[in-house]
Each structure stands twice: as C-alpha cells, then as structure tokens.
Design a protein that fits this description.
The chain folds into two domains: 52-155, Orthogonal Bundle (serine acetyltransferase, domain 1); 159-279, Hexapeptide repeat proteins (UDP N-Acetylglucosamine Acyltransferase, domain 1, 3 Solenoid). 39% of the residues lie in helices and 14% in strands. It contains nine helices and 15 strands. It is globular and about 55 Å long.
Length: 279
C-alpha cells in the first residue's frame, strides 16, 4: 500500500482481521478525547456500532432521507446490500484505502467515511447499481437523483465501477449509463464521462485500471482510455487513449509516454519531462 504522507496512521498500528475498521474506531476515540463537543457524534455513529458497514448504513441514510423516503428505509436497503453482496466489504475498504493513500488532505481513515462526499457518493452509487441490477430501477433512479442533489455528483445507476476508486472533491462529476471504470482509477472534480449525441446503446467511455483523470476533463463517446493513461486537466478526449500515455488539449492529443505506472496512485498532474514527450 502506497502512503504519500509520513504523518498518516499506519495500518500496522492496530493489527487485526479488519485493520481499517480498527483504525477508524481508534481515530474516533482520539477525536472524542480531543474535543468533548464531538464525543456524542463519534459514539453514536462510530463507537456505538459493531461494523463499518453499519456506520455507512446509518450515516448515508441520514444524508439521503427525504420527505418521501425516510432514513430507516434507506438504512434497511444498505443493510440488505451489505449482507447480500459477497465482495462489498473488501470493495469499501479498497475505496477508503484509495482515498487515504492518494489524497494529501486525508490524514485518517475516518475522514472519507464521515466527511468526504466523493467517497460517500460512490458508496451510494454502489447501492443504486445493485438495485438497478436487481430490477428495482425506479428506486435506483430515486437514489441517484437524491445523491445528485446532496453531493453534486451525478452517476447513472447502470455505470460500472471497480474497486479502489478515488473521487477527489467530486463536485460537478457526471458519469453516463454505459460508462465502465476499472479498478484503481482516480477522478478529480468537474469530470464528465459522457456521450456525443442522442444515440442510444453503448455510448460512454471505458476507463481501464490505473488511469488518472484531471479536473475538468471531458471524455466523450464509446472510447477506451488505456491502462495507466493520464488525462490532463481541462482536456476534451474524443478518441481512444493508448496505454501508458498522457493526453492533453482540446481536442486531446497524446503528448507523452508516462514515466511511471499507475498514475492514479502517484497523482502527479504535472506535464511530463521533455525526455518523455512524443516527437
């Protein structure tokens, strides 16, 4: 596991079968001890519950409740999802680790769970996607619409995500119905994975593993973004991007071969050195 900040908590601090959850509980105790004003919040949401999944069920249901769908019913949906999806516990922890590893503003594992809307919006999408695949499309659409208002992130319930996804800041992200995002991808704010017109069918981008998508990038159409590619901020991508390359511009063009694998983990947004530029 890559860690980009020496002050961050190590997973080895609390060895056990569920080290991320163990660290979150320890961080909640430390926060409570440091500020009595936050004690009730930490105990009601973190320390008073037996699992990370229950924390998410409670917390996200409170954020999503409306006059038409009360938090108790949303909590039950999350509970059913977490109890029936065989891989979701590992996926959640991979997403938390991705935020901790890649975001220099994240110093504790508790922060994405309680405070970071990119992580929270992604977890709501995972529930909506499960409902969509189960044939409960209206409920999936409803959760999408509420999540869009709450988090300013609009992800169609049918869009597919792998694990270890980092959505930084998140505001303004739009991801279309047939988009597919593989494992270990990092996406900055104001990114669009969209179509190019009103045609139906498979019309959205396919993003392979290790890709870094910079702020404000627009990737349009049923195109492939190759493994370990990097999309520069503000670019408009209309064609396939080869593995391990950096594209930039409007429209985007290949400007370099990447000097590191998996830019999604490195999070380096600077343009490459002259040695790697495409002549």
């Amino acid at each position: 596991m890559v860690q980009n900040n020496n002050t961050k908590t190590s997973l080895n601090k609390l060895p056990g079968i569920d080290p991320i959850w163990d660290n979150i509980k320890e961080e909640a105790r430390d926060a409570s001890d440091a500020d009595l004003a936050i004690t009730r919040y930490m105990y009601s949401l973190i320390l008073g519950n037996k699992s990370l999944e229950k924390v998410l069920s409670l917390h996200l249901s409170k954020l999503l409740e409306t006059a038409h769908l009360e938090d108790r019913l949303i909590e039950e949906l999350f509970d059913d999802f977490y109890n029936s999806h065989k891989d979701i516990k590992q996926i959640i922890r991979s997403d938390i680790a991705a935020v901790f590893d890649r975001d220099p503003a994240c110093h504790r594992y508790i922060e994405p769970v309680l405070y970071f809307k990119g992580f929270q919006a992604l977890q709501v999408h995972r529930l909506a996607h499960w409902l969509w695949n189960d044939g409960r499309k209206d409920l999936a659409y409803y959760l999408q619409s509420v999540s869009s208002r709450v988090f300013s992130v609009d992800i169609h319930p049918a869009a597919k995500f792998g694990r270890g996804i980092f959505i930084d800041h998140a505001t303004g992200i739009v991801i279309g119905e047939t988009a597919e995002i593989d494992d270990n991808v990092s996406i900055l704010h104001d990114v669009t994975l969209g179509g190019t017109g009103k045609k139906c069918g498979d019309r959205h981008p396919k993003v392979k593993s290790g890709v870094l998508i910079g702020a404000g990038a627009k990737i349009l159409g049923n195109i492939n973004i190759g493994s370990s590619a990097r999309i520069a901020a503000g670019s408009v991508v209309l064609h396939d991007v080869p593995n391990g390359t950096t594209v930039a511009g409007v429209p985007a063009k290949v400007i370099a071969n990447n000097d590191k694998d998996y830019p999604a983990q490195d999070m380096d947004h600077l343009l490459p050195s002259h040695d790697n530029e495409i002549k």
